[in-house]
Design goal:
The protein has five helices and five strands, in the order βαβαβαβαβα. It has helices spanning about 5-15, 30-35, 50, 70-80, 90-100; strands at about 1-5, 20-25, 40, 60-65, 85-90. It has a five-stranded parallel beta sheet with strand order 1-5-4-2-3. The radius of gyration is 13 Å and the shape is globular. Keywords: Transferase.
Length: about 110
């Protein structure tokens, strides 16, 4: 599995030359309501086994959680299901708030 830092992900999202990845937020709904990266899709971790077939295996998937632990577990699960373009956001939304968007609420 690959890992990406918050600043690297921000640069990727803002690069018109690169295809936009699926930003897969695996936190709970209340966490997503508190703060999230714009454009992220909420699919809570406990629903991934029943919903991963909804994802495009050809699109890069960046897994996101609060600090990077749950998203790493989801990324590993997706790789076991045959996904080859799976990336974990190191440090999660906490790192995004600290390194990219200081106006983002934290918890």
């Amino acid at each position: 599995m690959e890992h990406i830092s918050a600043p690297e992900l921000a640069a990727w999202i803002n690069d018109p030359e690169r295809p936009t990845p699926l930003l897969l937020d695996v936190r709970e709904p209340w966490e997503h309501q508190t703060c999230h990266i714009a454009g992220s899709q909420l699919v809570p971790m406990n629903t991934i086994p029943g919903r991963f077939s909804e994802l495009d295996e050809e699109q890069p998937v960046v897994c996101i959680c609060h600090h990077g632990g749950r998203s790493m577990q989801v990324a590993a699960f997706l790789e076991r299901q045959g996904f080859t373009k799976v990336i974990n956001l190191s440090g999660g939304v906490h790192a995004w708030a600290a390194q990219v968007d200081p106006s983002m609420p934290t918890y």
